[in-house]
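Practice record 12: protein with pyridoxal-5'-phosphate.
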Amino acid sequence: MNSLHEFTAEPMIAYFSMEIGVKNDIPTYSGGLGILAGDTIKSAADLKLPVIAVTLISRKGYFTQEIDPRGWQQEKPVVWDPARYMKLLPVKVKVQIEGRDVTIQAWVYLVASPTGGRIPILFLDTDVPENTPEDRGITDYLYGGDHTYRIKQEVVLGMGGVRMLHALEFHIKKYHMNEGHASFLALDLLLRFKRDIESVWDERSVWDLARVRDLCVFTTHTPVEAGHDKFPYSLVKQVLGDILPLDVLKDIAGKESLNMTLLALNLSRYINGVAKKHGEVSQHMFPGYHIHAITNGVHTFTWTCEEMAALFDKYIPGWANEPELFVRSGNIPNLELWEAHREAKRKLFATVKQTTGVDMDLNVLTLGFARRATAYKRPHLLFRDIDRLLKIAEKGPIQVVYAGKAHPHDDSGKKLIQGIYEYSEKLRGKVAVVFLPGYNMDTALKLVSGVDIWLNTPLRPLEASGTSGMKAAHNGVLNFSVLDGWWIEGHIEGFTGWSIGGPPTEYSKPGDADADDAADLYNKLENIIIPKYYSPDKDPWARMMNNAISKNAYYFNSHRMMRRYVTEAYIR
Ligand SMILES: *Cc1c(COP(=O)(O)O)cnc(C)c1O
């Protein structure tokens, strides 16, 4: 009946994510969450885990970023053809939305590992002739549209996904929700397992919450309350009708509105945050639930540049499928590490020249900063005291490469990008600052391997994990970051990189944090980092690069992460 028979023989883990980024040409991701999902699937394939992934096709992608002459972000639609990369399955399922049947089809993309492991990803798609023009667009825009559009997408992902797996005859032993967007899957399971015998004492006994919980794993990624999807019950009723008695629904999804995170929390046996600190922060936000922590990782092979990969092949054969072997990175001669890095730097600068026309200097200490343009990441912290920065640059020159997209509706994020352009003008001739438009997986790899220092300045404790710094470490690029998210676990001062600001036990007070953190940033840059970088003896710097590999890449990879999910979440 379908081409997936080889996968339906054994029980599988179903991994649901609103976005999955497996490669640059398939634009079904916006940022960290999607890349993490892609890395998860790649490691699952390498490790031959019985996993199937479910996501949306996002036919119009997220968006292509262009910057106009005023430094203002312009969003261009992404045009891509799923048929180039995927096969359409001959199976359709339906969900009810606003009283209509919405038909869903699925494209399958196979992630194939050199180890022989293969993981199918189902991309759900409502663009079929049976649907109304409006419904055909439900799976068009990743994070586009309003509340109503979003809830429809989440119904397609969660309920449509479970139904698609069922129609394809998969036997699922765990459902893993990567963030709350997928929680409707648990609602579908609840309907599926409805008991037909009602207890005379308790009319709710038809709902087998325990059975659903036994099947569900939930990973939360958002350390702020406002980041969780919530829908008014009036909207829920409009879209889903009376899917469950309202009092039952309110018990599991929140009194005032349907909170996708609460829904997932109440219907999952295993719940985790994405770094140790984030686990604690989440535990604080959700007392009454036991929140575990599995620290994120990145897919080692994907996030290692060619030059470093060649070096690892030579000195640490087998590294890609066994990142633990990085424990032996001390065998790599300093000079060769330094040379491989310079080559990656050259490549980044060629891209910078080609896209922005700016010439960067290979011999100058280069800082990189690339992430979603949003206030809490504080992309302007480096420019807080321009005079100070200029004085520091007189001691040893520095240059900076920025990248990152702002959400299309986020004008404050766009202003941050525009601000980078303004600082770049202000500093012209003294500190080269460029913004590289169109942050995506390809430019991300160039950036995390081609700069010397990876800068991260979030306001504590708002960075759940962060993963780009782990990518930097895979390429011997040193992290210089606020102690938040993964860096609390990866940081050894002056050994794997450097911290910015106070200890992780202190939350930043929005008022003073900027001044304190900037002061620490400037002090370390001036007195520790610049002297070390420009020292005639390159060995100490190269040794730190090596430490980043042996201590950070060794641990912060998605192979380790997936082994933890298997032993702690999946086989229980
Ligand atoms: C890795 C990556 C991210 C996430 O990086 P963070 O450090 O978690 O912000 C976002 N976008 C792209 C394109 C990436 O490759």
